[in-house]
Sequence to fold (416 residues):
Amino acid sequence: MTYHPKSEFMSVMLKRGFLADCTDYQGLDEALSSGVTPAYIGFDATAKSLHVGSLIQIMMLRWLQKTGHKPITLMGGGTTKVGDPSFRADERPLLSETQINDNIAGIKRVFENYITYDDGPTGALMLNNAEWLENLNYLDFLRDIGRHFSVNRMLSFESVKSRIDREQSLSFLEFNYMILQAYDFLELNRRYGCLFQMGGSDQWGNIVNGIDLTRRVLDHEIFGLTSQLLTTSDGKKMGKSLNGAIWLNPDMLSPYEFWQFWRNTTDADTGRFLKLYTELPIEECERLGALEGSEINEAKIILANEATTLLHGDAAAKTAESTSRDVFEKGGTGDELPTLKLSNKDVGDGISIVQLLIKTGLAGSGKEAKRLISEDGAKLNDIALTNAGLILGINDFKTPVKLSKGKKKHALIKLL
Fold:
C-alpha cells in the first residue's frame, strides 16, 4: 500500500510488517495523531499459557504503549465459556469456571514482561469480559443487542461459512461467539473510550461486527486493525514445533527451549522475525536478515537473545546462549537443557534407551525411537546409538546422561 501514516504507531505497524488490514487507515491514523488512544486485543483462556503464535499480538500492544497510547488486554473469562469457532473443524471442549480462572492466572503473568500496568495516561489495563457478560439478562440482550445482527450476514463470514461448507457442525452456542465479541468492543468503548480493536486476520469478521454494533447502539466511530496470520517460510503455522506448542510460560517451556526455537529459525525467516519479535532498528534487522552462509547463524543468535530477553529477561537469554554454545561447540552437557529426573525405582533393574527417548520427548513412540537409532539420528553422550535394545542400569546414571536427536534436540537425564 502507498499510504504514508502520520502516527508513529501506524508507521511501526507498516514498516515492521505487522499490518494485514484496517477498516479505515486514514481515520485511525488521524485519531492516533491527536492524542492517547486506547486499543484492545482479546485473549481467550483455553490453556494455562499463550504460545508464540500470540506473540505478534502482544508485540503490537507493546508497540502501542511505546508509541504513546493505552493498551487494554482483555481476558476472555466470559467468551471462553462459549468458544471461538473461527476456522475450526470442531467445537472446542467446554472448560469449567475453575479451569478458566486457572488459565487466566497463568496467561496474565506473561503480559507484565511486555507491557506496563499503572495509573498513568498510557498505563495498560487488564480486564475480564466476564465482568459484563456473566450478568446479562438473556431476553434484554436479545432485544437490545441481538436485533442488530443479521443471520444472513453472519453466515457469510468466512470463519463460519468454511465450517458449514465442509458440512461440519456449528452449534448455536458457538454461533453466539461473534455477537459476544462484538458486545465486548461496545462495552470497552462505552466504559473506557476504547477506539480500536486489534487481532489476527482471522478475527476480521468479529472486529467488523463490533464496529457496526457500536455505531448502531452508541453512534460512535471506532476502528479495527488486523495483523498477518504468520506461517514460516516452509508453510508451517507459527507457534508449533515437532514437539508441540512453543509456550510462553516458563513452567510449560523452559527459557532454553524458547531460545532454541528462535535459534532454529530458517534463514529465509530471520530478517522478518527480527522486525516482528525484537525492537532492533529496522535497518539492523534487514542487515542481519541479508547475511548468508554461516554468518546468518549469528543473526539467529541475536534474534534468540532479543526475543528471550523480552519474555524471560537478560540473564535467562545469556544462560541459554551459554548453554547452547556449550552443547553445540564444546560437546558439553549444559545444565539448562530440558532434564528428565529418574528415581532408583524408575530405573529398577534397567531402563531401555527406547523408553528414555520417549520419556525425554525426543521421540513420540517406540517405533519412532527405533527408527531414529536405525538411521543414526540419536546419540548417547555425543556417541551415535546403534543398538535399539540397549538397557541402562543405575551405575550408568552416576553422572548426568545426555541424549540427542539430530544436531539440535538434546535432553539430560539425572538420577534423583
Summary: The chain has three domains: 8-227, 254-329, 339-415. The domain at 8-227 is CATH 3.40.50.620 (Rossmann fold).
